[in-house]
Every structure is written in C-alpha cells, then in structure tokens.
Amino acid sequence: MYEDAEGTIPQVDLSPSLLARLLLERFLEEHQGSISSKQVLNSMLREPSLIPDVQLARHVEQCTINDCCYGPLVDCIKHAIGHEHEEILREKLRERNLSFVDENQLRAKGYDKTPDIILEVPIAVEGHIVHWIESKASFGDEHSHRTYLNEQFWSYWNRFGPGLVIYWYGFIAELDCQRDRGILLKDCFPSDIVTLGHSPDQC
Length: 203
What we know:
Helices cover about 45% and strands about 15% of the residues. The protein is an alpha/beta fold.
C-alpha cells in the first residue's frame, strides 16, 4: 500500500478495514485541510469509487473484501443474519399463536428504543414472566452481554417489564444470572411456554 524508505511495506497489527479507515482519514485530511465528517468517511468506505484517488480506492476496496471480522461488508452480513433470525422468531411466535408487536410497528407508534418483540399477552418461561423478547444472532460473551445490559436490556425492563433474550449462537452460562431481576437468557426459542389459560407446551 504505502512503502517505507527501504521500499518495503511495514507490518501493522490492525484489521484491514481499520487500516483502510485510518489511511482514508489521513488522505482526506491532507487533501482537504480538515477532518472529514464521519458520514463522509463511512460513505467512502462503503463505496470506494467515491474516493478521489483511484489507487487508494482500490486498496480500500481490497481491505474491505479481505476483512473477515470488521468493516462495511461484514456489517452488511451481520445485519442480514440478524434480520433472518428476527424472522425466525416471528415465525415461532406465529406457530404458537402468540399475539405480538414487532420493532417496526413499535417505531411507527413513536417508540425510539424497543426490543424486537413485545408480547400483547405475557407468557411464562421456566416460571419467569416474559413481556418482551430480544433476538441476538450472535454468541453472548461477557463483554457484549454487559454492553447490551447497560445500553438495551435494562431500558427494556424499565419500560416494558421482564423479558427474554435469545442468543441464537449460545452464551456463557454464568451470564444467565439476572432471572430474578427480570432478564432471562436462552439459546433457542423456548419449548416450555405457559400462555394465558393454557398448560405448558410439551417438547
């Protein structure tokens, strides 16, 4: 990409997408005399053809393609997988004839921060009342779960009551320690649901 004085490319301990972002930031700063907005930077990372330097645009595109963990391409893949699992959740609810309102309907009503699903009639799972369900198409590790608790789950609990989080790719068992406070963790759609006027569903 950029060679040093000896004509070799220095090794850096950065992901390809982060390296591309830093190089693009420096390029724009040098050519425009000011730091570009985050919106402009993200637009160029998503669409490298917007970058005025053709060679840099090619390098940025290659960084995006070759990064398996970060960057615009990975974000699109994660977004698609997330939507797929939200649809799986909706299908499971329909199969059980459970009445619910999803995130899109809630936002249309003016809610700004909502779980994926709010149940119009609460259910019980393993003896715990559930008013809402959040779908996470990821593995629940300690760092991400703590972040979700602080930024999402406790807000949902404050607004809507106790709820259920489904980590479709599993989670660290010790993290399921907030049940008595109203947040239950599962790695699949629960089979032992108790609905109003019904007995627990059997597997």
